[in-house]
Each structure stands twice: as structure tokens, then as C-alpha cells.
Design goal:
alpha+beta, 2,3-Dihydroxybiphenyl 1,2-Dioxygenase, domain 1, nine-stranded mixed sheet, 20% helix, binds cobalt (II) ion
């Protein structure tokens, strides 16, 4: 069911500082910031040869990463994103196995314009997992 690693997402308290560090110090290709109000984050993509890193900063009052940054004020790894061919088939297989989907269980449009779902971290060994239809 799982395909490629699409990205690893890092929550950061200061997106400009994080993007600058990745661009200047680490010499990475870094995108312009993109606001995603539906997801409560502003995101910068770091393009690597084999995958991407997403740098996430809270956007708005109800950001899903605000609580994470309160617990991890310096920032930290927030989720991993795996590609699947068919997100509805993946969701049905996972829920049949007892896994919990965050939110209303319906895919949302993610940062790359593709449908995404998030799986409860308690069902996946403490790591928040995002699935993205490839
Ligand atoms: Co993501």
C-alpha cells in the first residue's frame, strides 16, 4: 500500500529563520513561504534529491501545530508523509484494521494540491502519519 516517502515535516517557531538556515547554512533549495489557511500552517518546502522537507509555522489561532510547539518550543519533527495510489482504498483498509483517521475522515487537499489524510499517532507508534495520493 505504501509508496514513496513524500516528505518529513518539521514544525518550527520561526519560518523565516528556519528557511534561511536551510538555504544559507545547509545550502538547500528552499521555496517561498505558502500560506495554507485550511490547514492552519504556513509552509516552506526544502527540495532534496530523493524527498522533501516541509517546514511548518502556525497560521491563525486554531493551528494544529500550536500545541506541538508549546511542548517543543525549539521545534521538532511533526509528521512523515507517505504516498499511496488510492487514498480512499487506503483509508478503508486502515479503518477496517481499527486505525483512527484525524478530523472527519474525509481527505483534504494538501500542500501539493493532492488529497491527504492524517492517521492518529497513537496507532502508529507515536508518529503522526500523513498519507498523500500520489
Ligand atoms: Co505534510
Amino acid at each position: 500500500m505504501l509508496g514513496r516517502l513524500n516528505h518529513v515535516a518539521l514544525a518550527v517557531p520561526d519560518l523565516v529563520a528556519a528557511a534561511t538556515k536551510y538555504r544559507e547554512t545547509l545550502g538547500a533549495k528552499v521555496s517561498a513561504p505558502q500560506a495554507l489557511p485550511e490547514h492552519g500552517v504556513t509552509v516552506v518546502f526544502v527540495d532534496l534529491d530523493n524527498t522533501r522537507i516541509e517546514l511548518l509555522e502556525p497560521l491563525g489561532n486554531a493551528s494544529p501545530i500550536a500545541a506541538f510547539l508549546e511542548k517543543n518550543p525549539a521545534g521538532g519533527m511533526h509528521h512523515v508523509c507517505y504516498e499511496v495510489d488510492d487514498i480512499i482504498a487506503a483509508r478503508n483498509r486502515l479503518t477496517a484494521d481499527g486505525a483512527r483517521i484525524l478530523g472527519d475522515g474525509e481527505p483534504k487537499t494538501g500542500a501539493h494540491g493532492k488529497p491527504v489524510l492524517f492517521l492518529h499517532p497513537k496507532d502508529f507508534f507515536g508518529t503522526l502519519v500523513e498519507l498523500e495520493e500520489a
